[in-house]
């Protein structure tokens, strides 16, 4: 081991938090439902605070849902842009958890923001989209309860 590897990290203080690296890229993974409203607002606020790019992602479970998802994700993108955030959006097809994990590995955001519907331990035990995302992505994940 080198001296750098054995050196302890300094304690986190208010001063070090203020000088922490800013978030430059936020990925909002949303189902565009009622439960995702708080996660959407948190992602927009985070991107606005750090002047970060916001990517808004939705996953259509079938090709028939895609047109409606595209229309609704555009509304979220417009809302973000009205808040002064540089925002882009895209819709993928497939399993939501798998698609979000793949997008995070492909797009390399600093943070993924997802909403969570269930708060009970049984939902966590059985697995949820947000839980699978938290385990599978290479970055920080913010899970926002509905």
Detailed description of the structure:
This protein has 146 residues and is of the alpha/beta class. It has a single domain, classed as HUPs (Rossmann fold), CATH 3.40.50. Helices cover 45% and strands 23% of the residues. Helix 5 runs parallel beside helix 7. It is globular, with a radius of gyration of 17 Å. The chain starts with a helix and ends with a strand.
Low-confidence stretches: 1-17
CATH class: Alpha Beta
Please tell me how large the radius of gyration is. 17 Å
Roughly what fraction of the amino acids lie in strands? 15-25%
Strand order of the largest sheet: 3-2-1-4-5
User: What is the second-level CATH architecture?
Assistant: 3-Layer(aba) Sandwich
What is the CATH topology descriptor? Answer: Rossmann fold
- The first-to-last residue Cα distance is 45 Å
Query: What is the helical fraction, as a range of percent?
Result: 40-55%
């Amino acid at each position: 081991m080198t001296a750098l590897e054995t050196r302890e990290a300094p304690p986190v203080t208010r001063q070090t938090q203020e000088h922490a690296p800013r978030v430059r890229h936020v990925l909002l993974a949303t189902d565009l439902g009622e439960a995702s409203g708080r996660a959407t607002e948190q992602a927009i606020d985070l991107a606005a605070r750090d002047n970060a790019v916001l990517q808004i992602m939705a996953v259509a479970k079938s090709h028939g849902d895609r047109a409606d998802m595209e229309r609704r994700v555009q509304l979220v993108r417009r809302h973000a842009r009205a808040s002064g955030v540089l925002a882009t959006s895209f819709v993928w097809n497939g399993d939501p958890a798998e698609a979000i994990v793949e997008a995070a590995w492909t797009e390399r955001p600093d943070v993924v923001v997802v909403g969570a519907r269930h708060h009970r331990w049984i939902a966590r035990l059985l697995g949820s989209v947000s839980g699978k995302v938290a385990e599978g992505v290479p970055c920080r994940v913010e899970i926002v309860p509905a």
